[in-house]
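Quarterly update, task 2.4: adenosine-5'-triphosphate-bound model.
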Amino acid sequence: MHARKSTGIPDVDEMIEGGFREGSINMVDGDAGTGKSTFAVQFMMAGLAAGESAIYMSVEESKESFYTNMLRFGFNLEEYEKAGTLFFYEANAAQLKEFLDKGGIGIEDRIMQMKPQRFVLDSISAFALLYETGMKQRTAVQRFIEKLKAWNLTTLLISEATQDYTRFGLEFLVDGVVKLWYRKVGHERVRTIEIMKMRGTKHKIAETVYRIEENGIVLYPSETIF
Ligand SMILES: Nc1ncnc2c1ncn2[C@@H]1O[C@H](COP(=O)(O)OP(=O)(O)OP(=O)(O)O)[C@@H](O)[C@H]1O
Ligand SMILES: [Mg+2]
């Protein structure tokens, strides 16, 4: 049996035997505005609240905007940063590529010092586009994943659904894939979450309705859409 890390969303934990496997690399994939960053922060907060530490690497959104948006859900990231258990790392895609090409990701010292349990990359899409070929993307991402595994970081990589990942097969490299859908049902839009894969885990396969509410993502397992 593997130790599990809570996703911070009780009904999601329920779908995957209690959470992500400790040290596993997982991907959350969805269209714009589906709640990917919110999911990632809930995952991170579950650790922080339990006394763990975490690194949030943001390529998409500035720290200021991010902290303000997450405060709306009641997640006070600044508080954890001040306490030294959260490191919010703002990097643009080019910087990240440079780090990766040099064989490091630029935060090794910080990782050694903090010994974080959780890691989020928001998102992997931008930097993947900086490589000319699918093969180069795959090699870079593979090396990145190996590093995260070596540090035993339970990881969430955010990916943007509009990118064509089949080009370098990110979903094949990671241990778990969670999809966030924004479905048109009749005249309405419904958000659903689906566990596409979760290595070594007996997981639910049906899509489950969720909503983004005052405190973040909330699932409605009893609602059906089809
Ligand atoms: N207080 C709130 N109550 C309900 N829904 C909210 C609230 N705040 C934000 N939302 C919803 O959450 C969405 C943004 O969530 P989030 O930033 O996690 O999505 P994302 O998938 O990371 O977006 P992006 O693709 O832009 O990075 C908004 O588009 C909005 O629909
Ligand atoms: Mg986001």
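Highlight for this quarter: The mean pLDDT is 92.
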